[in-house]
Amino acid sequence: MQVTETLNEGLKRELRITIPAGDLDTRLNDRLTDLKDRVRIRGFRPGKVPIAHLKRVYGRSVMAEVLEQAVNETSQQAITDREERPAYQPQIALTEDKDEIEQILEGKADLAYSVTFEVLPPVEMPDFSKIKIEKEVAKVEDSVVDESIERIAEQNRPFAPRKDGEASETGDRLTIDYLGKLDGEPFEGGADQDAQIQLGSNSFIPGFEEQLTGVKAGSDIVVKVTFPEAYQAEHLAGKAAEFDVKVKEIQAPGEIKIDDEFAQSLGMESLDKVKDAVREQIGKDFETQSRSKVKRQLLDALDEACKFELPEKLVDSEFEAIWQQVTQDLERAGKTFADEGATEEDSKADYRKIAERRVRLGLLLADIGDKNEIKVTEEELNRAMIDRVRQFPGQEQLVWEYYQKNPGALAELRAPIFEEKVVDYILELATVEEKTVSRDELFHDPDEEHDHHHHDHDHDHDHDHGPSDDEKPKRRRTKKADKE
Length: 484
Prior knowledge:
This protein has helices at 21-36, 51-82, 98-105, 142-155, 260-265, 271-305, 312-333, 344-371, 378-389, 396-405, 407-429, 439-442; strands at 2-9, 12-19, 91-93, 111-118, 132-137, 159-161, 173-182, 185-198, 220-226, 240-253, 431-436. It is α+β, with helices and mostly antiparallel strands. A hairpin with a 2-residue loop joins strand 7 and strand 8.
C-alpha cells in the first residue's frame, strides 16, 4: 500500500492510496483458497477444486468483494497511521473509467483511490475557574403553593345541571354540538359533537362564548364569528364563519372547598400532605428552570471563550438539519420569512451561526469529556431506556428491542446524559454564585420576544454531542393563533 497526501489545508485532508495488483492477487487467492473447501462443483471432489478453475468461475465476483474489503482496511489503516481523528466518515472516491475498472477486476492493474475527510480541530481548554455563573434561585413561597392548589381545585370544581329554563351564565359549562360553515358550506375540522365549553374560558374563537351566554338547554342558535388574522389554519384566517350550535346541557359551577375532604378526593391523606406534594413539585420546577438558565450562561461563556476552526461538512450537515426543520415549521404554519420580519437570506445567515455554535460547543464538550474520562454508565443508559420505553405503553418489548439493536438510537439517548455530566463537571470548577430572585424573575426570559427551537441531531462522529439549547434568531413574533 502506498499513501500520498494530496491535500493538507486547514482541517481538510486528501490521501491518494494505491494497492498494487500483486497485493490484490494475493488477497484474491486467499479468498479462493478459503472458498474451495465450501463450494461444490461437478467433476471435482470437495476441497479439490483447483484455484485456477475457481478463479475462472468466481474470479470477478470474488475480486469485487476483495476490492471492497481492501479499500475499507487500507483507508482505515492509512488514517490510523497518521494519528488523525476524522470529524466524520471519510469519503472514498474510486475510478469511474470502465477500462481501468476492467483491468483492476482482471488483476492487471493497481487499485488507486482517494480518501477525503476533515480532521477534528485542536481544542484549547479554557480556564474553567475564570468562568463566572450567576445561579438564580427562588424560594417556594406559601402564596405560590396556595395558588397552585387553587388551580387544582378549579380544575376539579364540581358542576351540576341548571334547572329547566335557566339561562347560561359566565362560568357555566355547556355541552354542545356544532357545525361550522364558510359561505354556507361546512369546512374541515369545523364540527364536533358533545363538545364541552366553559363560558369565560376564552378557549374558543373570540366572540363564540359570548354568544352562548344567556341561552337555554335545548336551544338551537347560529353563532357568527370571524377567525383571527393570525389563525393557524391559513384557509380560515380572517374569514367570517357561522356555526350551527345545539345546546344540549348547561351546568352551573359548584362551590370549591379546599380542605381535608378535598385532599382525600385527590387520593391524599390530608390538605397538609397536598401542600407538601405541591411544594416539592414546584421546587423541582424551580430547580429545573434555574438549571436551564445556568446551563445557557455556561454555554454562552464557553462559546465566547473558545474559538477554533470548524469542520465545514459538520457545519453544513447541522445547518441543513436546522434549516429543514425551520422551513417545515413555516410551511405548517402557512407563513413566510417576510411574515416573521426577515428575509430568507438573512435567516440562512442567522441559522448558519447557530449551526456553527452547535458544532463548536459539541466538539468542545466532547473533548472535555474525553480528556477527563467522563463516561455514561450502563446503569445510566438503562434508566434512560426504561424512561423512553414507558412512553409507549403496550409496546414496551418492541421499543426495548429497537434500542438494543440500533446503536444510533442508543447514541441519541446517551448524548444528552453525556452532555449533562460534562456540564456538571465544568460547573464544579467554575465560580457559581447564587442570587435569590422572585418566581417571576426566575421564569423571565430576556429573549422572550423570540422563540427557541430545540434541535437534537447526531453527527457521524461519535464524539459530537451537540448542546440542546439552540435559539431561533430574533425576529418579530407572530401572534399565536386562537384555539378553536
